[in-house]
């Protein structure tokens, strides 16, 4: 069976919830990390204490078949609780954007992004 490597970026609350919900033998995951920013918090007009990264990234290894199905169902369930929010899928090696998932994205569309 093949594997799909994918990085997901989104608001930290969504990524943290996904991290807790994704529990499957067909999915391996990294710990969520803050997305690196070129902005320097010390140069921020609102001050270093107020600057906080709100984007996190998690990398997943999905097994073809059940891993992709489990991922699709979990993402749909999670985003239903965050209307208007999105997750960005990227190739973890190149950083190239593969697609975006919202609460309106179908499971079939998610599957097609992961091919």
Describe the structure.
This protein has 115 residues and is α+β, with helices and mostly antiparallel strands. The protein has a single domain, classed as 2-Layer Sandwich (Alpha-Beta Plaits). Helices cover 28% and strands 28% of the residues. It has helices at 12-21, 66-80, 107-113; strands spanning 3-11, 27-29, 33-34, 55-63, 87-90, 97-101. Strands 1, 2, 3, 4, 5 and 6 form a six-stranded antiparallel beta sheet that branches. A hairpin with a 6-residue loop joins strand 5 (87-90) and strand 6. Helix 1 packs across helix 2 (66-80). The longest helix has 15 residues, at 66-80. The chain is globular, with a radius of gyration of 15 Å.
Level-2 CATH architecture: 2-Layer Sandwich
State the helicity in percent bands.
25-40%
Q: Give the CA-CA distance, first to last residue.
A: 13 Å
Q: How is the CATH topology named?
A: Alpha-Beta Plaits
Give the CA-based shape.
globular
Strand content: 25-35%
Main beta sheet, described? Answer: 6 strands, antiparallel
C-alpha Rg, in Å? 15 Å
Structural class: alpha+beta
Class in CATH?
Alpha Beta
Total domain modules: 1
Provide the residue-averaged pLDDT. 86
Number of helices: 3
Number of strands: 6
Query: Could you list the spans in which at least 5 consecutive residues all have pLDDT below 50?
Result: 47-52
Order of helices and strands: EHEEEHEEH
């Amino acid at each position: 069976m093949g594997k799909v490597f994918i990085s997901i970026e989104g608001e930290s609350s969504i990524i943290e919830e996904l991290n807790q919900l994704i529990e499957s033998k067909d999915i391996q995951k990294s710990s969520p990390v803050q997305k690196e920013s070129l902005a320097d918090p010390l140069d921020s007009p609102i001050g270093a204490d107020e600057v906080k990264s709100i984007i996190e990234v998690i990398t997943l290894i999905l097994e073809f078949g059940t891993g992709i199905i489990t991922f699709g169902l979990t993402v749909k369930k999670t985003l239903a609780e965050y209307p208007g929010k999105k997750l960005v899928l990227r190739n973890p090696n190149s950083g190239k954007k593969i697609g975006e998932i919202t609460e309106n994205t179908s499971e079939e569309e998610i599957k097609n992004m992961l091919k």
